[in-house]
Design brief:
The complex is a heterodimer of chains A (115) and B (113). Chain A is an all-beta fold and 115 residues long. Chain A contains no helices and twelve strands. In chain A, the strands form three sheets. In chain A, strands 2, 5, 6, 10, 11 and 12 form a six-stranded mixed β-sheet that branches. The mean pLDDT of chain A is 94. Classes of the chains: A mainly beta (115), B mainly beta (113).
Chain lengths: 115, 113
């Protein structure tokens, strides 16, 4: 079974607007971590934000925030005030306590920011 | 601080050839990983290591081998290359497990023809 599902292969957003990238996950482990990474066209992988399963508040990092809904097993990334440089592929990933050595990635969402 | 260094950046192999992808990190991280990324897809875990002398299989280990003799180095060996191994390979490391982000190398673009 797919552990990380990103249902939006591609998304478009107007510059300066906010956008939400969806991520749902599947685990029976009560202790896990959720990550978002950005991959620009240059190919490198850039860490954006982390949410622990026991964290009470949604994580925020600058213009990035994670909308964590534990009961729904969703961890959506919200990018506020989109910039042209946000155009990239975005990956959601999970690490489970029982498999702490392994990160499982979704298939990604390609975000295009329009001027 | 170099972080995670992968070599080579590009390589073309003929079917049946072998090669080693090198990965080294200078952050004293215990955990190291090898992922492959096929075009338009996410990352699939090939092998990982939680410390020197300890390695384990990921989702797609067939056709690959690894070793971890030191904390710094985690080479990936491809034996008898096949076209299905055409992919971008990423090495990554982290301090430890659950809550720690991955630090990635810049990737190796491998084509098997």
């Amino acid at each position: 079974a797919q552990k990380i599902t990103q249902t939006q292969p591609g998304m478009f957003v107007q510059e300066k607007e906010a956008v939400t990238l969806d991520c749902t996950y599947d685990t029976s482990d009560p202790s896990y971590g959720l990550f978002w990474y950005k991959q620009p066209s240059s190919g490198e992988m850039i860490f954006l934000i982390y949410q622990g399963s026991y964290d009470q508040q949604n994580a925020t990092e600058g213009r990035y925030s994670l909308n964590f809904q534990k009961a729904r097993k969703s961890a959506n990334l919200v990018i506020s005030a989109s910039q042209l440089g946000d155009s990239a592929m975005y990956f959601c990933a999970m690490r489970e306590n029982t498999n702490a050595g392994k990160s499982t990635f979704g298939d990604g969402t390609t975000l295009t920011v329009k001027p | 601080n170099a972080g995670v260094t992968q070599t080579p950046k590009f390589r073309i192999l003929k079917i049946g050839q072998s090669m080693t992808l090198q990965c080294t990190q200078d952050m004293n991280h215990n955990y190291m990983y090898w992922y492959r990324q096929d075009p338009g897809m996410g990352l699939k875990l090939i092998y990982y290591s939680v410390g020197a002398g300890i390695t384990d299989k990921g989702e797609v280990p067939n056709g690959y081998n690894v070793s971890r003799s030191t904390t710094e180095d985690f080479p990936l060996r491809l034996e008898l290359a096949a076209p299905s191994q055409t992919s971008v390979y990423f090495c990554a490391s982290s301090i430890s497990g659950l809550g720690e982000k991955l630090f990635f190398g810049s990737g190796t673009q491998l084509s098997v023809l």
